[in-house]
Amino acid sequence: MSYLPFTRPTLDEATIQGVTEVLHSGWLSSGPKAKEFEAALSAYFGGRSVRAFNSGTATLEVALQLCGIGPGDEVITTPMSWVATANVILHVGATPVFVDVDPLTGNIDLDRIEAAITPRTKAIIPVDLAGLPVDRDRLYAIAKKQGLRVIEDAAQSMGATWQGKKIGSFGDLISFSFHANKNMTTGEGGCLVLSDEAQIPLAEKLRLQGVERFPDGTMDVDVAGGKYNLTDIAARIGLGQLKQVDGFNRRRRELVKHYFTCFDRSLGCGLPQENFTDSNWHMFQILLPLDRISRGEFIEQMKQREIGVGVHYPSIHLFTLFRRMGFKEGDFPNAEKIGRETVTLPLFPAMELADVERVCTAVKEIIEASRK
Ligand SMILES: *Cc1c(COP(=O)(O)O)cnc(C)c1O
Asked: Mutation test of ligand 1: which of 54, 81, 82 has the most ligand atoms closer than 8 Å to its C-beta?
């Protein structure tokens, strides 16, 4: 049987051909395709202002800078995310303040946010883990009441919705990633949806060395910007992907429905929330019964059956960098439990229903055969 990875991008021939045309055009860095991609993204998000970046990490960092966040400021976020979410807070010199997650969704526990707010708190960065949106009504009610900015780390929730509205089509600052493993990709890339058009010039300066150009050919620099612009090559991939992302997400939903049908619920695994309205099903994650099998053993057995498994994520606060800041075991028990037990099973649009069955059979046989 052929190797089944836990994820794989789907690129159609038209997109590949389009990239070839960009390569022939002589314009490889940010140019007409990057602009076209931004316009297409803006249309996708209901006409809001969008700027493209070369990663979702850069996008988050610029969002923090747009909020004027720096040394002495605190930013509330979740420990259950890709480490980028916390790293960007450190990059701007601010302090990450973690809040434990809801054990069922894996998303930041909104009930715990207000207790974490201090006079230094400037913003909240929620993460839609696996593409399941955080409750936006409650989130923005808290932010409004407390006078905080919101930077939505929507890296995983492209095409997901809240109450029928696309994530990105409303809210404060919304950051997406187009990394190769996300629901749509540009290879590497990201975009930021802005709520305030007046901030576009600063966002553009922060994206490219702080440079402002004038009609007479001269330029000025008044802020130390980064090097975060998206290439036209990547933008052309994104233009092809954007047309397909809603279809990709529909296919993911079908596959997940099949997972729920086929998965043996007597194995003692924790299954994700069965949310087929809001989630874009970026990942299908289960929690392993560690009393029956260790995660290392499970991953090894799946590998022997040529099935790829991911771990998303170990709780951020237990990484050495964050332990050095004083975080320790026991700080965020819900995130720690997910971090120990979680595995990501294969899910990507090109999968067949038979692949889902193959995974479910493998999981069942491996856990039942485990002698632990
Ligand atoms: C992927 C991801 C990022 C970072 O995006 P890159 O494009 O890889 O820089 C940030 N946050 C979350 C939750 C992600 O999944």
From this structure: 82
> Where would I find the beta strands (DSSP E) of the chain?
49-53, 74-77, 95-98, 121-125, 149-153, 161-162, 165-166, 173-177, 190-194, 211-213, 219-221, 284-287, 342-345
- Go through the chain and tell me how many residues it has: 372
Structural domains in the chain, CATH included, are 13-239 (3.40.640.10), 245-369 (3.90.1150.10)
| Residue 371: per-residue pLDDT | 79
Average pLDDT over residues 38-51: 98
Which candidate, 149, 253, 130, 241, places its Cα nearest to that of 189? 241
Cα 331 from Cα 99, distance rounded (Å): 9
pTM summary value: 0.97
Rounded to whole angstroms, how far apart are CA atoms 83 and 313?
Answer: 9
Residues taking part in catalysis: 182
Q: Residue 288 above 80 pLDDT? A: yes
Q: How confident is the model at residue 1 (pLDDT cuts 50, 70, 90)?
A: confident
Residue 343 structure tokens = 């595995």
**175 CB under 6 A from ligand 1?**
no
Q: Alpha carbon of 49 to those of 5, 8, 42, 201, 353: distances in Å?
A: 36, 30, 6, 12, 38
CA separation for the pair 367, 301 (Å, rounded) = 10
84 Cβ inside 6 Å of ligand 1: yes
Output Rg (C-alpha) for the chain, integer angstroms: 21
